């Protein structure tokens, strides 16, 4: 029998081992250490950026980070000229001939634009209806109290000059525009404001209101009632006060709208509504926002945005402070959270996914689709609350969370109906296509950056926009992504060299999956400081693929036994007897990688992990031999026997477990022997095994390979159909995934959080790869993801 003895030349061993050590100088990273701008940029490989460019980038990123941190401390309330005008119209309780809030009048006088208008987007033609609404409201406020005659003239001139836009249906319309604007024209007559529009034009505008009211007059839903209360100022005294006050909040406002609340105070003198306005002015000064309060929602949106675009690691303290407050508000059942489906759903998802112990009981009010249909958003067809509650429904941690199951059922149906229509169809499409458990972090970051709309204009009764700090968020995200992408490209080049130096590309039986392996690493272990973890994850992914193919098709039984024997006799030396050149190439590549990882890990862990790495590989090889013998002997194990062995043979051990040593914290011997550590590994591996079996059932059946689907059918005596067997596997998969997430999010356990998160991220990789087919085996299925994360530049929407 052929025996290959002696070690390859020392130079080739060094070549096979050396890449990575020179680039990834043993960084000592601790879990408690937050990423710095310097750390992120200095992770850039030599030659990618000059020292001067790097220092300039650091300064720009530091400046953006500080601006964003300030915004995370205090909510920026964007002024609404329209709402400020309505508050300015509130009379003094002791003298109805005088305004109560003089500071609002002063703000209006100081804030008119040169063209005579008021509004946040007065120079943008597509928002001219918004500007007309704000301008007419401000003119009415000044006229009511006989202030600013010149301001009134200029405002009237602007309105008259642009009145034709009222009828242009192609322009963006604020909520309730066709009721509110005609209503204010009628109010103009009452306060003696002369608008030289002509009776015909005024009549046509008034008719818009009549048509709007008639259009849905038969709709008696609570959603329509809420909508009519929200735009009550457009209907004047004709609306029943009780129907408006049905929507008064605990804080005294009507639907958190300063303009509606001001109208109620002006018309009906409600004390609680007046107290709300007084408190609001004490908080914000001389001008008011379009909705208040909004602090919790705004802060949660910022946290969500920072996480979605991949820069949350720069703001860990600020995010914790925000989530701690949101958690307290959740426990207190704060009206800011529980009264709004979108805020409630977002709060639940962010709190649960960030490790807060939170029950889904508070979502019981949303178990039925009527919770949406009977809301104003449902009446208006605004799908944003449905998107948020759908995302929340996916974060199931316990088998009996029926509330989440019911929410998921109806919300997914509505969203699927929305994919072919509606302004939110793109966002809906992404929510359905990429569930949170089947997405890669860096893919999500890139999508979110490219369609970044946090802070873009939201239409309420007037346009609403968050603060300009969002430009800083986008700037930081783009710089961070581009910097990381340059690092990924250099790392992948180095890995390609390593594959060739180790002669792995010469193994004709082996699939060449380096790009997929590196995608898995870069898209989840994405921080520049974690290069060692990425390299470990990628190299071992390549090696396990080679070994898998060797056991499946490339090796004889003698070669397989020889490879296992080499690891059983591991002594750290490379002078061995090899049955074939294939065995020699595979063993030497793994041997060199183990030694390299052990050397790097020693600098971080302060102990030698070589024995653990060898044990991981030996367990994998032995499990693969079991499957090989099953196949050769045509034996059919029980499902339990198959899965017990399959959790190891799926080959996550060498990929994930060594990488844990490089994600930050020190990992003691006690941790790697702890039941939680092994349970995390079993659950993640089981997800992979079941996903692989579901997507590879037909192919593996033709190859004569065992599979949990086919074994179920065989063990049932063929009484179980393929569909029933697949349903059983899917049900098991869902329960295992839920158990894994529950364990990962549990605080204060033996395994450090960054390590637990890598198990979950690996599960996400597997779910994405096997979402529609066996993406890992397909030569093209995942190439778009490879290009998106590693090669293709960002394409920012204007």
Automatic annotation (TrEMBL):
<keyword id="KW-0456">Lyase</keyword>
<feature type="domain" description="Terpene synthase N-terminal">
    <location>
        <begin position="242"/>
        <end position="431"/>
    </location>
</feature>
<dbReference type="InterPro" id="IPR044814">
    <property type="entry name" value="Terpene_cyclase_plant_C1"/>
</dbReference>
<dbReference type="InterPro" id="IPR050148">
    <property type="entry name" value="Terpene_synthase-like"/>
</dbReference>
<dbReference type="InterPro" id="IPR008949">
    <property type="entry name" value="Isoprenoid_synthase_dom_sf"/>
</dbReference>
<feature type="domain" description="Terpene synthase metal-binding">
    <location>
        <begin position="500"/>
        <end position="737"/>
    </location>
</feature>
<dbReference type="InterPro" id="IPR005630">
    <property type="entry name" value="Terpene_synthase_metal-bd"/>
</dbReference>
<dbReference type="GO" id="GO:0000287">
    <property type="term" value="F:magnesium ion binding"/>
</dbReference>
<dbReference type="GO" id="GO:0016102">
    <property type="term" value="P:diterpenoid biosynthetic process"/>
</dbReference>
<dbReference type="InterPro" id="IPR001906">
    <property type="entry name" value="Terpene_synth_N"/>
</dbReference>
<dbReference type="GO" id="GO:0010333">
    <property type="term" value="F:terpene synthase activity"/>
</dbReference>
<protein>
    <submittedName>
        <fullName>Ent-kaurene synthase</fullName>
    </submittedName>
</protein>
<dbReference type="Pfam" id="PF01397">
    <property type="entry name" value="Terpene_synth"/>
</dbReference>
<keyword id="KW-0460">Magnesium</keyword>
<keyword id="KW-0479">Metal-binding</keyword>
<dbReference type="InterPro" id="IPR008930">
    <property type="entry name" value="Terpenoid_cyclase/PrenylTrfase"/>
</dbReference>
<dbReference type="Pfam" id="PF03936">
    <property type="entry name" value="Terpene_synth_C"/>
</dbReference>
<dbReference type="InterPro" id="IPR036965">
    <property type="entry name" value="Terpene_synth_N_sf"/>
</dbReference>
